[in-house]
Design brief:
The protein is an all-alpha fold. The chain is 78% helix and 0% strand. α1 packs antiparallel against α2, α2 packs parallel to α5 and α3 packs antiparallel against α4. The structure holds MU-OXO-diiron.
């Protein structure tokens, strides 16, 4: 069993909250697009919310396996700031960049602790963030290219809705 330092344990417990808050935020964005009749966009964010819960569970499992107490913290309700259709996609880009910075802080701590097992565990999240940031940029770029034409927006909505 690896020894996880108190500092890293606190950061990992904080990250559980950050992942669940991400799920909550993406669920709100999914609801926004559903209300705007873009069911494909809505489905994309439904899936994103599910993935964030899986990320939280991954950390919970890691802490359990390493004998660290899981401490669940308050989850803040997202404040709805979305007005235009583009806003949800911009928010996703910004939010994923924020999460990446949190993951890097975790990795910095694991490196400082010479905790090689946690570094290996966190590498999955570093890679996942690369992927998620990439997707968020791609969606925004597509919207900016095609989103103004309503008939194309409809096709884009279908494409987004095909996410597995
Ligand atoms: Fe779990 Fe999108 O960060």
């Amino acid at each position: 069993m690896a020894t996880i330092t108190k500092k890293l344990a606190t950061l990992l417990n904080d990250q559980i909250r950050a992942e669940i808050e991400s799920a909550y935020l993406y669920q709100d964005i999914a609801n926004f697009y559903f209300e705007e009749k873009l069911v494909g966009f809505s489905k994309w964010f439904d899936k994103q919310a599910e993935e964030e819960l899986e990320h939280a569970k991954k950390i919970i499992d890691y802490l359990r396996e390493n004998g660290v107490k899981v401490v669940l913290k308050d989850i803040a309700a997202p404040k709805r700031t979305l007005k235009e259709l583009r806003d949800g996609l911009v928010l996703q880009v910004k939010h994923e960049e924020l999460v990446t910075s949190l993951i890097y802080k975790l990795m910095d701590q694991a490196i400082a602790d010479k905790d090689y097992r946690s570094q290996s565990f966190l590498k999955w999240f570093v890679d996942e963030q690369t992927e998620e940031e990439g997707h968020s940029h791609e969606l925004l770029e597509k919207f900016d290219l095609y989103g103004k034409d309503l008939s194309v927006l409809y096709k884009l909505d279908r494409e987004f809705g095909e996410r597995k």
